[in-house]
Specification:
Helix content: 40-55%
Oligomer: single chain
Largest sheet: none
C-alpha cells in the first residue's frame, strides 16, 4: 500500500503540474513503519485484558489507523502487540484530549498480568504465548 501511495502521489503531482505548464518532483519520506501486531501476541493480551474487564469490553477487531507509532519499530524486530486501553473522552493527539488518571491502575494491572503470564510460560509453566 505504501508503494502504491508513493507512486500515485508522484503521478498526481506530475499531472497537476503538467496541466499548469510546470513540472513536479516528489520527495516521499517513509518515517514510520506500519504498526502491525503479531496475531498470537495480540490475542494473548486481549485474553489477559478480558480477565480484568470482561470479554464484552475487549474489541479484538479494532479498526486500522493511519497514524504513526514508534512502537512499530519494536514490532519490526520482535513479536508483540500494541494495545489501546479505553479511557473515555477524546482520543489522544486531539486538542480536547484530557488523560483519565483513573485508568492507570487498570492499565498497569493488565501490563503486569501480561508480563507475569509470559514469564511463567518462559519458565516452563502454561498459558503464555510462545
Amino acid at each position: 500500500v505504501r508503494d502504491l501511495v508513493e507512486k500515485r502521489i508522484g503521478e498526481i503531482s506530475a499531472s497537476i503540474a503538467a496541466g499548469l505548464g510546470c513540472t513536479a518532483e516528489t520527495d516521499y519520506g517513509r518515517f514510520y513503519p506500519p504498526c502491525i501486531n503479531t496475531p498470537e501476541q495480540a490475542a494473548f493480551m486481549a485474553d489477559v485484558a478480558a480477565g480484568f474487564v470482561g470479554e464484552e469490553n475487549v474489541d479484538r477487531n479494532y479498526p486500522r489507523m493511519a497514524g504513526g507509532e514508534d512502537f512499530a519499530f519494536m514490532l519490526e524486530k520482535v513479536p508483540g502487540a500494541y494495545i489501546r486501553i479505553g479511557q473515555g473522552g477524546a482520543s489522544a493527539h486531539n486538542p480536547y484530549f484530557d488523560f483519565n488518571d483513573e485508568i492507570l491502575p487498570l492499565a498497569a494491572s493488565v501490563m503486569a498480568a501480561t508480563a507475569e503470564k509470559r514469564l511463567r510460560k518462559l519458565n516452563g509453566g502454561g498459558d503464555g504465548v510462545n
